[in-house]
Write a structure and sequence with these properties.
Blueprint (H helix, E strand, L loop, with lengths): L8 E3 L12 E9 L5 E20 L13 E2 L9 E2 L3 E15 L1 H4 L15 E8 L7 E5 L10 E4 L18 E7 L5 E4 L16 E4 L4 E4 L5 H7 L23 H5 L22 H9 L8 H9 L20 H4 L48 E7 L40 E4 L15 E4 L10 E2 L3 E3 L4
Parallel strand pairs: 1-7, 14-17
Antiparallel strand pairs: 2-3, 3-4, 3-6, 3-7, 5-6, 8-9, 8-10, 10-13, 11-12, 13-18, 14-15, 15-16
Length: 469
Amino acid sequence: MNIKQMTLAVLTAATGAAMAVMPEVSNVTMTQVPNRLVTITYQLVNAPAVVTLDIETNANPSAAADDAGWTSIGGRAICNAQGDVWKKVGESGTFNGTITWRPDQAWTDEVGNGFKIAANGARARVTAWPLDNTPAYMVVDISDAATAATEKKYYPAAGFVPNGVTNSLYKTTMLLMRKIMAKDVTWTMGSTPDEPKRTASKEGTHQVTLTNNYYIGVYEVTQSQWSQVATNSTAAAIFTAEQFMRPMEKLSYNEIRNAANTYVANAAYNWPNDPNPSSFLGLLRLKTGIDFDLPSEAQWEFAARAGHGSGYWNDGSPILTTEPDANLNRLGRYLNNPSSNSSATPTATMAPADGGTAIVGSYEPNDWGLYDMHGNVWEWCLDWYQADIATATDVSGNNYNGRVNIDPSNSANYLSGESASGKDRVRRGGNWNKTASDCRSAFRGQYGPAERGTGNGNGFRVVCTAGLQ
């Protein structure tokens, strides 16, 4: 392989206005030795930053640096690069980074032969991401060997995620998180009267503007992932056949967030307080150093819709009046989905192909790359349930506007100040034994926070703040 040695500085726009402290890459060089090891060096000014890499080629070796003919060789061939890449680098000031890459082990054709290019026909593109605007995907290792200092990696697009986003690693020992660009986006929550299967009393439309970007799990938390963290949990899933990549279910809200390895609540750990240190989320935070939590229902619905409004599934196909709904069949496990026997009487050993929950990611993703937002298991949200949130206000009379429906002065109350003692929490998305109606993005489910929901498939996915943790 012939290398074009060059300098290419790449900037990523910050979310704030302090352009003077933007991280900047310069003095990029790329060299190769006879054993084919490629070494890339760069200088990072205004460190720290998250650094990512791309390798580009051009059929014209003399092309200018900004020539449109330069094109990426694809993230799959690059994601095995090692060193000062895919993570936070530097502490302050100027940092000199080194990356190594073995193209002969990763950049091969369909029969395993390494690609060869013309002299000076390749270049390295090193990108520095400000800590408040980290890349689109975050991978968090939660295996026994993981530590808070080593487990977080960042990738700029799905094609760069090692082994591909559908790999079993992200369903067993790692969490794959997708950044949702929600900050200051105004959108319509709920459903309009013309949406098929609508429940009018729960789904009034209202304008919502979320205040922050966030990462959300590409998949529902699986049985394997639960076992990596909550080792002393008394929870047990209903379906055991091929269990490890099926979603964890039969879970109460309390044992995910509020309780110490039981389903008995402790009000001291209600949001906005941190989770109980002995709950799943408390243990996950301790293990990773990341502020993982359940999504608010506004965060959940915004991510589930993937930019599509009322009347549509999250791939942009219309919600049909028929049951089953042919457009939902390809997106998720639900009652009467003809791709499975999900209407069969469930047994503990039922294989995914025969009914019950499916292995996460068995169906097509939504248009933002998230799987199983429709069906499979209900997903708990942070909010107390209140039927009419379209007109809800807080105790000061301010509009709900997508905030978590909990009074910050008393977390046992709704935002409106009404007591929620003994009431329900929100759950979203439907599950394997619910009709298409309950699996719509706008449908708002409810359930007691101490109830595990045997047969009802209560599970969850996690969110965390976008930006370096």
